[in-house]
Amino acid sequence: MSESVDLAIIGAGPAGLSAAAQAASHGLSVVLFDEQPALGGQIYRNIETVDRAQLGEVLGEDYVKGATIAEAFRKSGAEYRPDVTVWRVDADGSLAWTDGAAAQITNAQRIIAATGALERAVPISGWTLPGVMAAGAAQILLKTAGMVPDGPTVVAGNGPLLYLVANQLFSAGSEIVAILETTRFRDYIAAAPYAFQALKANEYLSKGSRMMRDLKQKGLRVQSATSDIHAAGNGKLERVCFTANNEDQEIEASTLLLHQGVVPNVQITRQVGAAHEWYEPQRYWRPVTDEWGATSVETLAVAGDGAGIFGAEVAAAAGRLTALDAAFRLGKIDELERDFQAGPLIRERDRLTAVRPLLDHLFRPTEDILQPADDTIVCRCEEVSAGAIRACVAEGATGPNQLKSYTRCGMGPCQGRMCGLTVAEVIAYAREKSTEEIGYFRLRPPIKPVTLGEIAAMKD
Known about the structure:
By secondary structure, the chain is an alpha/beta fold. The protein has 19 helices and 21 strands.
């Protein structure tokens, strides 16, 4: 049997948890769906069960703050469904999901997508070797299992998370032998005009300075302005090769952690047909939203990093704002009450987001990952290389959707989550067009793997 609720929320990170608690406080019936077995999302993963005495100090006070958000959600009365996969969302407010046994339908008057961000794929030569992984994945292992990489570890790329993960892993006992920064001098020049407004969120700048200071105090090697980073080894990672100071260099390592920022997870908003816009500084797509997170699809709002990368504190505020708007739209509060409660949240959101232009111009993705070498695998699901994509363009493929018929690129289990942005970049460069003109994969349900048996077991 299908069910009906006032509000369905997808994602149990800071945005989803905050939205659920806020909405429930106004009398809305709320169901929160999440793929993970425990709430917290990526940023607060395992927050309710982590050994805070052992890992709390390693992960930092920002992580521990998630416990307050989780506790508020638990007390809210909102229904929580972990370990479920939402594989279809429709503009009429219905969504299809599965718990691994049978697919089911929930009909909601309003949906909030709080699916957060994805770590940008970093397709370099050798990135498919065992021992090479995303920095965010290493952080997940630390949060969920207290595990750190074994042996010499190199952390490479750019962005705030790069330094945070390096600090956390080192504090947890990992052998970090080098941090290879890819930020260039011209990035500092591009970011400089935004430095003054970033002072509104000075606490973020202070945290960044503190992380850098900690790295230096720990004696970690930090190599600036590196390029042409690639992994080498016989059947597994053995060396990290790179160029710095106009010299080719290499470091022996058993683990390479890559990071080039995070991007909005737009799978649901794309599938349901919401309008999107291209964000040039970080070269990603994001849904077009108003100040309440509402999209061009009448029933759908987006909260948190799925609407643009702003961090956990902004995500929590955004979740509450989308919930207030849902309560207003569904007649639980009037416009005056919505705006009154939203005032402090909007002011805090605007203050905290003032730092983003600085960070987004300083930590831009580098050209070598946007345009990987011909022999570099781009689509890992279907093992399609950058050279194969370029060859298809030469044969007449005009965009990501046409490329599917040539290569099945973007048709594997990840449905383009890993390769989508890189595919568009490679095609755009080959066709001498902007990535915005080239566009993105057309997503159709199911957007996550679901078996025929689960669909067949769906109850009317």
